[in-house]
Amino acid sequence: MISVAVLGNGVVGSGVCELINKNDNNIKLSKILVKNIDKHKNDKNHNIITDKIEDIFGKDIDIVVELIGGIHPAYEYIKKSLNNKKHVITANKDLISKYGEELLEIAYQNNVKLYFEASVGGGIPIIKNLKNYLASNEIKSIKGILNGTTNFILTKMDKEKTSYTNALKTAQELGFAEADPSSDIKGYDSARKLSILSTIAYEKKVNWENFKVEGIDDITETDIKKANELGGVIKLLGISNFEKGKIYASVRPVIVTKDSEFAKINNEYNSIIVEGDSVGRLTFTGKGAGKLPTATAVYSDIVDSIQNKENSFLFNYEKAFIENHSSEQCDWYIKINYKNSHKVLNELTEHFKNIDLEVNKKTNQILVIVKSEHEEYINAVSNKLLQSQDVKSLNSLMILNN
Ligand SMILES: NC(=O)C1=CN([C@@H]2O[C@H](COP(=O)(O)OP(=O)(O)OC[C@H]3O[C@@H](n4cnc5c(N)ncnc54)[C@H](OP(=O)(O)O)[C@@H]3O)[C@@H](O)[C@H]2O)C=CC1
Ligand SMILES: N[C@@H](CC=O)C(=O)O
Q: Domain Aspartate/homoserine dehydrogenase NAD-binding, which positions (predicted)?
């Protein structure tokens, strides 16, 4: 009998306990750690619930499953568990993207395993596939909708005209959002996931703090309407590619045209397209957040750790050099809140040869479509406009069709 302790009995933790109770006679749920024990007095596992970490470390446990989230005390608990020679399973992307290298090294030194399938893509088996199935391939690019909460919000705003605030509230009620939802909204959660995937795929340390991260907090109904007029929808995409030894990575809202695979990915679903040099394009799609989909990924790691499956990760790669600009040439949608429309229009026509313009004098907004341009040039012109006194704010979105 394998004895499992689950740290955290929230959305994912309670899902894991449910799957353990439902599935396997060889796995015994021995202890559950929570913060506020009163909240759990009606839980059917209440007799094994504790708010004291000593009850976990003092017990004869084989596997510790960390589902508290955040950095502290999750980091200390995982470290101690590994040093006590317990296998550890976590869904914590904050922790893996920050301390993955150190924790994997500690696991290795103690001859135990640290698994983290659920840290990216909720119920989608992406990490195992990237590491094992794609072992023979050089990965050229990763593109994905990596956050369920923001995809849920964008879908509700687009299809049901729900306000941003109400859509976020529903995502929180459904258990998709992080404890601090600004991680989702500002793109940090997607960035952490992209850094984990890119580190595994390119075997280079890809630190998300070194790449461009933009969230959906500036996306308005106007942008959604404009995207629809252009035959597309807005999605928050994580994109990375590896070319000639250099890595480009970013997280940003993008307009994807309706025939793109991503346009059909709605609500809390995630989708990740990986391109390998031998296999070509592979698409992984499924629920990227929520109780039982995420618990499924955690449970699969429990099975792997019982079978002592190899996960020879160490993350001790050399640091990646991150490119700031995508080499891709595409169309762009730029929204400018102006102070002086004449000056801004002059600048725009001077710098861009091929543009469509829409000026709204009531809202003091100029909506611009620029055809076939590189990011580097878009950024240079945007910075110039922003430095002038004529522009209050400016947002630019790539328009992608694949
Ligand atoms: N929700 C999702 O869809 C997904 C979540 N994840 C990740 O899974 C992890 C858990 O997320 P989720 O289940 O949503 O989080 P919740 O907020 O729903 O649950 C957190 C749990 O941890 C407990 N807890 C919090 N702080 C402490 C502490 N200091 N000591 C002991 N227990 C503590 C809470 O106790 P109490 O109940 O008493 O407050 C609660 O039971 C996170 O890393 C998250 O990023 C990954 C993929 C999807
Ligand atoms: N908050 C995250 C949960 C899963 O990782 C998300 O919305 O994707």
A: 8-117
The CATH number assigned to the domain holding 343 equals: 3.30.70.260
What integer pLDDT is reported at residue 244 of this predicted model?
Answer: 87
Which of the listed residues 68, 87, 119 is the one where a domain comes to its end? Answer: 119
| CATH code at position 197 | 3.30.360.10
Assigned token pair, 334:
């730029």
Q: Are residues 275 and 337 in the same domain?
A: no
Three-state SS letters, 110-135? CCCCEECHHHCCCCCCCHHHHHHHCC
Answer yes or no: do 29 and 175 share one domain.
no
Q: 257, exposed or middle or buried, with CB in 10 Å at 0-12, 13-18, 19+?
A: middle
pLDDT attached to residue 59: 76
User: Which protein residue's CA is at the shortest distance from atom 6 of ligand 1?
Assistant: 91
Number of domains observed in the structure of the chain = 3
Our mutation pick for probing the ligand 2 site, out of 176, 185, 266, counting the most ligand atoms within 8 A of Cβ, is 176
Percent of the chain with pLDDT over 70: 99
* pLDDT, tens digit, 9 for 90 and up, residues 120-137: 999 999 999 999 999 999
In percent, the amount of the chain with pLDDT more than 90 equals 94
Measured from the CA of 91, which atom of ligand 2 is nearest?
5
